[in-house]
Hints:
Blueprint lengths: L1 E6 L7 H16 L2 E6 H4 L7 H8 L9 H11 L3 E7 L7 H10 L14 E9 L4 H6 L2 H14 L3 E9 L7 H20 L2
Parallel strand pairs: 1-2, 1-3, 3-4, 4-5
Amino acid sequence: MNVFIVYAHPSDGSFTWNVKESFIKGLEAAGHSYVVSDLYKMGFRTDMSEAEYQREANYREHLPIEDDVAAEQEKINSGDAIVFIYPVFWTEAPAKLVGWFDRVWTCGFAHGSRSMKQLEKGLVICIAGHSLERLKEYGHYESMRTVMLGDRLFDRVKEKEFIVLDSTSQFNMEERMANWDRHLRTAFEAGRTL
Ligand SMILES: Cc1cc2nc3c(=O)[nH]c(=O)nc-3n(C[C@H](O)[C@H](O)[C@H](O)COP(=O)(O)O)c2cc1C
């Protein structure tokens, strides 16, 4: 499969960065090819211009889109699967990734007349400081899953999966380190079995 990875973490060497590397090793082990958009490294602009807002808010599909947005859409349509890897920031993806959706999920591509191809698989791997138990207790898990799978991916992919690698906060280094290898194995397997 051709896999498009959208990766959003500001720091190399972070746990999320290690997850991305393990996931890629899994893809390689299975013989998949991949392309990565590293949104912070690319300096991807994630705030909409007024022209972009007017185009989207008024469903003006005939108006042009920016080159950086077209490049991302091309990567999506050249792939069979899309994978998002990011840390949870305030019960959401980092603003960098949220803004990527604002700009890349354009009218005429992701909705409206929709030139986006339906992908075989959509996978979300997010890394959380809190435990899965706590995220579920407060409804955070369900809201994050609904936003990513139920809205952003929706029927744009045939098969969807949401993986949370939890209890990785630097507030509790002992717990973070205890989960480190297990989570990296999960990421590797997710890539290998995609
Ligand atoms: C600004 C900010 C907000 C965060 N918000 C949450 C949150 O709402 N829920 C959560 O479980 N973890 C949260 N975290 C913890 C991150 O998910 C943390 O980065 C994660 O443990 C992954 O570690 P890494 O940054 O080394 O990749 C937050 C971290 C930062 C920096």
